[in-house]
Amino acid sequence: MASEDKITTLPDDVLFTILSLLTFKKAVATSILSRRWRYLWTSLPSLHFRYEYVVQRDDKDNVLQHYRRVNGVYKDRCIQMVNQLLRGRKGQELQEFGIHYPLLESSACHIDLWVAFAIAIGVSKLELNFSPYPHLLPISLNKNYSIPLDLFDKAKGMEPYLVQLEHAFSIPTSSLNVQNRFKSLRELILKFVDLTDEHFEAILSNCTSLEFLHLHSSSRLVNLKHTVPHMKLKCLEIFHCRNLEKVEVFAPNLVSFKYQGSKIQIFVKDAKQLLNLCMCSYIGELEYPLENSLGLPHMQSKDFVFGQFAAHLSRLEYLMMDVSSFEGKQQFNKLPLFSNLKHLSLTCSNSSRGPCGMLRCYHTVACFVEASPFLHRLELHFHLGPTKNPELRRIAISPHRYLKEVLVSGFFGNKLAKDIILSIFNFAIELEKIEITTVFLYDLSKRPFKNSVAVNEVVRRCMGQLHQRLPENAQLHFLDDDRF
Question: Which ranges carry the F-box domain (predicted)?
């Protein structure tokens, strides 16, 4: 006698809980278990369609052949999958909706409907991640998707889309709470979606419950401005928007602000709750915007972080910056004590000198350690391969009892990087853990790469030397052993 299937007899809400603990791909796979499980996954409250669900990499394909498949047969398969699933839901409640596939403006007729569906049904999280694959292909040749601005028109913007939703997905208009469609949206993530300044204003003006906004690689943004207080916004992230020249936002309850790009003017008004700050003029980008359509003066490096956010520095618990914004100890003498800073992340190039060099990084560390009595975690991210290895002139740094964790990424085993780590061993007298990897972890949008055998041998030999000098109660972890 066959054993009884007790799981299948459980109530739907229990089965949904089980499915929610699985990846989307594994949840779909449960459809083969039994007749009851066949369509259960289609009613999940969270739907995220990812690139790897439809793309199968053929080892015989070169990069160009694979790219053609991604923008051909695989793209059609992705669109068909999303349309079929939305058609099967028939307007059921949905909390999260995300598309993670390199779709372009050519697929706008489908994406427009998906966005309209998500807004009309009242999702709390919407994510459009159209990051290109592979990353090395020239992005300028592709025309990115742009959300229709009329979707944010509270009067009649949704009406044409509602007719299409009813026709394409059999969703009756009566089941949608269209008037309150923006009140449910709390998280909005847009990557490689073309937005204008008007989009930014419309999003913050209409999405009054929005708590988290992430914008990545939107080339048409120039002057972001929202001067009416947005009371719910807690996290704002703006990454790699290459033509952006100015940001001005009024968010009294903002807790986290993260920016990566050229050095521009940024005004975050009345953000008295700000605790987390990332201000990085990424090494791979231009120091200043290519165009200056607003006629603004160039932002001085010393003011990019310490000038524009001077009023917030003493409250910060997390700070990430590149060392080009640091111009010496005299700069710190004019600043308040970083009395609440727990986590500091610094990035620099592997070159020894210059405004982004490792020597500048070492001096930055020395000043921050003295000015941050409760610093708990320090991260150093070295970009590019090492060049010269000058002698490190040690700076007298007082013993620090609160620094427990250190991460070093982009480590190639060069002498200067090793000497900087050894200097940390000297003043971090209560160090508990140091993690080291050859992978540059600062820019997570880049795919990690595997170093050559020769490089790995140098790194491992250096790791052995560091292990011999490790403080008594500290542990050293080489993360590449797990990654590769």
Answer: 4-52
